[in-house]
Automatic annotation (TrEMBL), chain A:
Molecular-function annotations in GO: cobalamin binding; isomerase activity; metal ion binding
Keywords: Cobalamin, Cobalt, Isomerase, Metal-binding
Domain B12-binding: 4-132
Cofactor dependence: adenosylcob(III)alamin
Regions that span the bilayer: none
Official protein name in the record: Cobalamin B12-binding domain-containing protein
UniProtKB/TrEMBL annotation, chain B:
MF term (GO), any: GTPase activity
Residue ranges constituting the AAA+ ATPase domain according to the UniProt record: 42-186
SUPFAM superfamilies assigned to the protein according to its UniProt record, in alphabetical order: P-loop containing nucleoside triphosphate hydrolases
Keyword tags: Chaperone, GTP-binding, Hydrolase, Nucleotide-binding
Entries under Gene3D superfamilies matching the protein: P-loop containing nucleotide triphosphate hydrolases (3.40.50.300)
Pfam families: MeaB
Record NCBIfam families: lao (TIGR00750)
Species: Candidatus Cryosericum terrychapinii
Protein's recorded name: Methylmalonyl Co-A mutase-associated GTPase MeaB
């Protein structure tokens, strides 16, 4: 039996900064994961629905525009509505230190800012995704 | 969540989980298939193959949108290559399908090839059974961008469409032996570009050389981008379906599909069994003998094969 970690790399909202998301997608692939990338300008509804259809283990939200406080929790809420709150939701991008506690309270498991080594992002997923035997 | 009941009820999360299980070779996937197989056989399965970038994903999303608007439920299985080195993949087909991603009654699933060479994933066949049982009327299977050897889709779909784009005359020559032979229809996409007529003529001339079997594969020009000619594709698929029914070929195909379903399972089991045998400590000594030419690979394979049977 072969388990593969499946990750949705998603860009919610109007933010067009996609370099980080693409770099992450590539890093996750190189780490042996299957990555679905949404492309830019997706709504939280689209992201949650795709996460369910693709049965991903992780949703990786990237936002550099400053709209993370509304968009990230929205994705978490929608996943919960769909009975998919076992999916790990992590976030990153340009996010002020002060916002991190708020995001964590709202179901974002961890937040990664500019300059985070890719290996740190990969290792976080590896150690937090529970794959049943 | 009872996945089997969820699949039968058409629940998205259950369908998605069941596909994950069959993809991973999880025994629970086999249980689901056993439980839902009686409810399969109603969906019409269409394969789309063709060169990388020809517009398969864009076209599938247009077809899905049109059928959904007619009240049909559409499932899409989109296969992209896995990296042979890391085993990972970036599954990019879906990026072209976002227009329909939220349409009710459209389900899209991206799959990596996971080492399979025929243009699909080993579980694509069983994933189609799951969508079928979940009540999807149409299932579209998009292969990886294919050359000539990637013809597995022909074993999964009732109707196979080969998608091409203008400006690939040489490719058509090269494809002659492979995917040119599996097309029930040929779609020249990007007809908004120059050269679509020329490509269509080239395809037609290659097709004239092949034997007729009561169905002459039509060559259609469409633009997925501009959303033109899509209804013609649906009509042609439906005509092909009618032809298969009227000629009795569909029944024959269904028996062939059943056979292939069984073959797929047998192959997986045998491969597991043989791999286990190869890992046995006793076999390592024999492998060294093959390496030092005291034995040969056929003789060792014979021994392992016989022993496996005795052990089961
Ligand atoms: C390059 C860049 C651009 C490029 C974008 C090119 C592209 N296609 O991506 C261009 C020039 C187009 C651009 C445009 C704009 N930009 Co700009 N841009 C930047 C810049 C300099 C670097 C971003 C980048 O690509 N970094 C490299 C990548 C690899 O890093 P990253 O995305 O941060 O990702 C890393 C980590 O953050 C983390 N990560 C990120 N997401 C996630 C998610 C998860 C789950 C995990 C685990 C990790 C993770 O991992 C990555 C690897 O370490 C930043 C400044 C900065 N230093 O961040 C400004 C910046 C983001 N831009 C900014 C602005 C304002 C704009 C514009 C609005 C400017 C304007 N007025 O027109 C436009 C808007 C564009 C749009 N449509 O949204 C501001 C945003 C301000 C804010 N948030 O409050 C910034 C912060 C500059 C600043 N200091 O003011 N920009
Ligand atoms: N001009 C034009 N461009 C098109 C048309 N259909 C698709 N494209 C573009 O062609 C490119 C490839 O389209 P896809 O749908 O991803 O092609 P594909 O065959 O699925 O590609 P792979 O899955 O990577 O093999 C994209 O940039 C599309 O926007 C069309 O009808 N006309
Ligand atoms: Mg594609």
């Amino acid at each position: 039996m072969e388990q593969k970690i499946r990750v949705l790399v998603a860009k919610p909202g109007l933010d067009g900064h996609d370099r980080g998301a693409k770099v992450l997608a590539r890093a996750f692939m190189d780490a042996g994961m299957e990555v679905i990338y949404t492309g830019i300008r997706r709504t939280p509804e689209q992201i949650a629905e795709v996460a369910v259809q693709e049965d991903v283990d992780v949703v990786a939200l990237s936002c550099l525009s400053g709209a993370h406080n509304t968009l990230f929790p929205k994705v978490v809420d929608l996943l919960k509505e769909k009975g998919a709150d076992d999916i790990l939701v992590m976030g990153g991008g340009v996010i002020p230190e002060d916002d991190i506690p708020f995001l964590k309270e709202h179901g974002i498991s961890e937040v990664f800012g500019p300059g985070t080594p890719l290996a740190t992002c990969v290792d976080y997923i590896r150690s937090h995704v529970k794959k049943e035997a | 969540m009872d996945v089997k009941l969820g699949v039968l009820a058409g629940d998205t999360r259950a369908v998605a989980r069941a596909i994950t299980w069959v993809e991973n070779g999880d025994p629970r996937g086999a249980e689901v298939i056993r439980g839902v197989y009686a409810s399969t056989g109603r969906a019409y399965i269409v394969g789309l193959t063709g060169s990388p970038g020809a517009g398969k994903s864009t076209l599938v999303s247009r077809l899905a949108a049109l059928l959904a608007a007619r009240g049909q439920k559409v499932g899409i299985l989109a296969v992209d290559p896995s990296s042979p080195f890391s085993g990972g993949a970036i599954l990019g087909d879906r990026v072209r399908m976002f227009d329909v991603a939220l349409t009710r009654d459209v389900y899209i699933r991206s799959m990596g090839t996971r080492g399979a060479l025929g243009g699909l994933n080993r579980a694509t066949r069983m994933a189609a059974r799951i969508l079928d049982a979940a009540g999807f009327d149409w299932i579209f299977v998009e292969t990886v961008g294919a050359g000539q050897a990637e013809v597995d889709v022909h074993d999964v779909a009732y109707t196979t469409a080969v998608v091409m784009a203008p400006g690939m005359g040489d490719d058509i020559q090269a494809m002659k032996a492979g995917i040119m032979e599996i097309g029930d229809l040929f779609i020249i996409n990007k007809a908004d570009h120059d050269g679509a007529d020329r490509t269509a003529t080239q395809v037609e001339s290659v097709l004239q050389l092949s034997m007729t079997t009561g169905w002459n594969p039509p060559v259609l020009k469409v633009s997925a981008e501009l959303n033109t000619g899509i209804d013609n594709v649906v009509d042609t698929i439906e005509r092909h379906h009618t032809h298969l029914v009227a000629s009795g070929k569909l029944d024959a195909l269904k028996i062939r599909m059943a056979k292939l379903d069984v073959l797929e399972i047998l192959k997986a089991r045998l491969a597991d069994m043989m791999k286990q045998q190869l890992e046995q400590p006793a076999v390592q000594v024999e492998l060294e003998k093959v390496a030092s030419k005291q034995s040969d690979p056929y003789s060792l394979a014979d021994i392992i094969f016989e022993q496996s049977w005795r052990n089961t």
